[in-house]
Write a structure and sequence with these properties.
With 398 residues, this protein is an alpha/beta fold. It is 32% helix and 25% strand. The structure holds MU-OXO-diiron. MU-OXO-diiron binds next to helix 2.
């Protein structure tokens, strides 16, 4: 039967059978403006097929249709689950109802526990880090990718066609009908891969750095790199994304950019932000201004990926900061961003408590925390000149 959704052959014996989520806009707080894909793969074996990962619940029909464009579900010999998070495992139980009853599931040791905890004691078999397993004539090697980005995360390498299934790592949230990176707009790939790193992998940057440094020693001759979100990498694209990961995860990588992020009540803090930004720029430092009226928390995280200076502006509201600033600070603190220099600023009415609260919150993120700049009610032109000077001084020597 013709299928509404077809598989895409990516090598002689491997097919992409994932799902496209065109409308996803919120991935636990990360605004995914271009949607995403949940990539799953079918690998031909001697007498059937191995399924690698599944898709989010609600997309089962699309997954099944693509599988059935290649084979019957009864031909599936095994399922490899690289990661238990539900965007990759959510349709597992529905698939299990359609494949032979004794179909084994393989996962990392932590993955076995996570799958059981997600799916009412679901049984899977653990594969050890570095081990190989031949399933129906097809040999796979397993590499633990702990905290990239969950404890159970695992990569699976297909020895026959040199394909690495890397799950979340090296992915991006980008819906589209193009499966290969070199069929996509390179500027969109550059932006979305960086957004993904900043919003998903940033807290685990030391583990990413370790994984990148250790990649050559794995001895994998990767010809195709298949993440579970967004386009697949091949040829020189593999080295490019590996090099970007090495750069983003390196705390010593050169950064020379300030981000001024603010919210405002009656435009006083906004005017301060404008003057501070001009002062920063006058010192020869790249500066980006982000109002939380026009930017979402994940935009801020994306811009912070290559920044070393942050200035956070909030007026005082009810002895504290504005709610959007609190939201953004909670988010970027969780992502464990680190900066060389930081400061709070803002306008206040009767006590500068909003700026004090911001300053306390950014203290753990900044090697050098400068005292807040505060202005009573509405800044005068002299006050704004002071703001400009504050901006210039804060980056001088950075
Ligand atoms: Fe794409 Fe950690 O799930």
């Amino acid at each position: 039967m013709n299928q509404p959704f077809e598989a895409l052959k990516i090598t002689d014996s491997i097919y992409w059978v994932g799902a496209i989520d065109w409308n996803l806009r919120n991935f636990h707080g990360y605004e995914t403006r271009r949607g995403t894909t949940y990539n799953a793969f079918l690998v031909k074996s001697d007498s059937g097929y191995i399924l690698i990962d599944t898709v989010k619940r609600g997309f089962e029909a699309e997954l099944i249709s693509r599988i059935q464009s290649v084979c019957a579900l009864s031909e599936i010999k095994a399922i490899i689950s690289n990661h238990a998070e539900m965007d990759h495992s959510g349709s597992l139980t529905k698939i299990l109802k359609r494949v032979p009853a004794d179909t084994p599931i393989y996962a990392s040791a932590m993955g076995v526990k996570a799958l059981a905890a997600h799916f009412d004691g679901l049984k899977a078999t653990a594969v050890a880090n570095g081990s190989t397993l031949t399933i129906d004539g097809r040999t796979f090697r397993f590499v633990e990718a702990r905290m990239l980005h969950w404890p159970d995360s695992m990569w699976t390498y297909d020895e026959a066609e040199h394909v690495l299934f890397s799950n979340d790592a090296f992915g991006m949230h980008l819906a589209g009908l193009e499966r290969w990176y070199d069929d996509c707009d390179s500027s969109i790939l550059a932006e979305e891969s960086a957004r993904y790193f900043a919003n998903i992998l940033m807290p685990y940057a030391p583990m990413v750095a370790k994984a990148c440094a250790g990649f050559p020693s794995l001895g994998l001759d990767v010809k195709v790199l298949c993440p579970d979100h967004g386009p697949l990498w091949r040829g020189e694209g593999i080295a490019k994304i590996l090099s970007k990961y090495a750069q983003w995860s390196d705390p010593a990588a050169p950064r020379k950019k300030a981000v001024v992020v603010f919210d405002t009540m009656w435009h006083s803090t906004e005017r301060m932000a404008f003057a501070i930004a001009e002062g920063i720029q006058s010192a020869g430092y790249k500066c980006l201004l982000l109002s939380l009226e026009c930017n979402q928390r994940s935009d801020v995280a994306y811009e912070m990926l290559d920044a070393d200076v942050i200035l956070v502006g909030s007026p005082t509201l009810n002895s504290g900061m504005l709610p959007k600033i609190a939201d953004m600070l909670c988010y970027i603190s969780g992502l464990k961003f680190r900066f060389k220099t930081g400061a709070a600023f803002g306008s206040y009415g009767w006590a500068p408590l909003g700026q004090k609260a911001v300053s306390e919150q950014i203290k753990p993120l900044c090697a050098n925390l400068v005292d807040p700049l505060t202005i009573n009610y509405v800044p005068t032109m002299e006050d704004l000149a002071r703001c400009r000077e504050f901006g210039r001084d804060i980056v001088s020597g950075s």
